Amino acid sequence: MIIASSHVVTVIDVHIYSMYSNDRCTWSFINKCDLFKLDEGPATQVVLTRDEGLQYYRIMQTMRRMELKADQLYKQKIIRGFCHLYDGQEACAVGIETSINLSDHLITAYRAHGYTYTRGGTVKEIMAELTGRRGGIAKGKGGSMHMYCKHFYGGNGIVGAQVPLGAGVALACKFQGNNQLCVCLYGDGAANQGQIFETYNMAALWKLPVIFICENNRYGMGTSVERAAASTDYFKRGEFIPGLRVDGMDVLCVREATKFAADHCRSGKGPILMELQTYRYHGHSMSDPGVSYRTREEIQEVRSKSDPISLLKDRMLSNNMASVEELKEIDVEVRKEIEDAAQFATTDPEPPLEDLCNHIFCDMPSLEVRGTNPWAKLKSVS
């Protein structure tokens, strides 16, 4: 369900079987996207297979439980420093990842734990990074905001700064002609940054294969979007770039919209902008209780009506695609995985002091270009 909309997800009770397997499927009607500078949008009648549903459920539950465990460890002062949790927004990460390739590229802001997982990081590596241990995905040196893996460029702490970097990655994709694209994510709080509009302009001029995605969770830190932006139609902000506004609480809506956007980019049409209407259950960060600028009743209403995991679970149960027992079994397995990862993250040793300055400089010959490194010797040629 879109947070600020009267649209209701409808599921029709029609079952089919995949022509390639015995995997049970269901046709589902999903919310229609709002469109900008587009004649047609993503499909609104889609197929969900049983295997897909179970996979999405497991990944979203893992992300949810991982964030709840991080909350617990932070309150125990085992995790320190900045920590921004992603619970409530799981459908965004899962829907995006199922619609692109692992060879494609993704960059996001500091609410990055979920994307680190969908991009290939393990729960153990993520939890150990949060606790600053040697087995962390960034060797215990990055913490919550700076996690990386192949084709995933973080985790960036400066508001909006990842957007021009993502356009640069997309420029590399176009230059190399590899049919890859870059998904470039930012929040509604960053959407008014000037560097984002500069990036829109460059991406449109050069027709870069980049999907700009604004994860609109309704609050930039403690400021509601209505108080921060004269126009909250973030999907229209590209002006000369086509856009979509998507129900970010429904994994199928996000999946279909991202497929549409990826096809747009790969066909050489240039960038496209998506706004995912979503919601975070925690505060902006662990230092924010999250209830001084919104009510507990508001949070509870979203949980009860629009929770992404509950929506998928209800869809699967109502269409007899899975049993309650099967889903409970997944829940038990996920909890065990999280507990094992937490145990590792609290017992793995911290990186030794001699590792402090490792992984900073790359041992490459300097370029003969003035100013490229502080040790370059200047010479005059007349």
TrEMBL record:
<keyword id="KW-0786">Thiamine pyrophosphate</keyword>
<dbReference type="InterPro" id="IPR050642">
    <property type="entry name" value="PDH_E1_Alpha_Subunit"/>
</dbReference>
<dbReference type="GO" id="GO:0046872">
    <property type="term" value="F:metal ion binding"/>
</dbReference>
<dbReference type="GO" id="GO:0006086">
    <property type="term" value="P:pyruvate decarboxylation to acetyl-CoA"/>
</dbReference>
<dbReference type="GO" id="GO:0006006">
    <property type="term" value="P:glucose metabolic process"/>
</dbReference>
<dbReference type="GO" id="GO:0005759">
    <property type="term" value="C:mitochondrial matrix"/>
</dbReference>
<keyword id="KW-0560">Oxidoreductase</keyword>
<protein>
    <recommendedName>
        <fullName>Pyruvate dehydrogenase E1 component subunit alpha</fullName>
        <ecNumber>1.2.4.1</ecNumber>
    </recommendedName>
</protein>
<keyword id="KW-0496">Mitochondrion</keyword>
<dbReference type="InterPro" id="IPR001017">
    <property type="entry name" value="DH_E1"/>
</dbReference>
<dbReference type="GO" id="GO:0004739">
    <property type="term" value="F:pyruvate dehydrogenase (acetyl-transferring) activity"/>
</dbReference>
<dbReference type="Pfam" id="PF00676">
    <property type="entry name" value="E1_dh"/>
</dbReference>
<dbReference type="InterPro" id="IPR029061">
    <property type="entry name" value="THDP-binding"/>
</dbReference>
<keyword id="KW-0670">Pyruvate</keyword>
<keyword id="KW-0119">Carbohydrate metabolism</keyword>
<keyword id="KW-0313">Glucose metabolism</keyword>
<keyword id="KW-0597">Phosphoprotein</keyword>
<comment type="function">
    <text>The pyruvate dehydrogenase complex catalyzes the overall conversion of pyruvate to acetyl-CoA and CO(2), and thereby links the glycolytic pathway to the tricarboxylic cycle.</text>
</comment>
<keyword id="KW-0809">Transit peptide</keyword>
<dbReference type="InterPro" id="IPR017597">
    <property type="entry name" value="Pyrv_DH_E1_asu_subgrp-y"/>
</dbReference>
<feature type="domain" description="Dehydrogenase E1 component">
    <location>
        <begin position="60"/>
        <end position="353"/>
    </location>
</feature>
<keyword id="KW-0479">Metal-binding</keyword>
<keyword id="KW-0460">Magnesium</keyword>
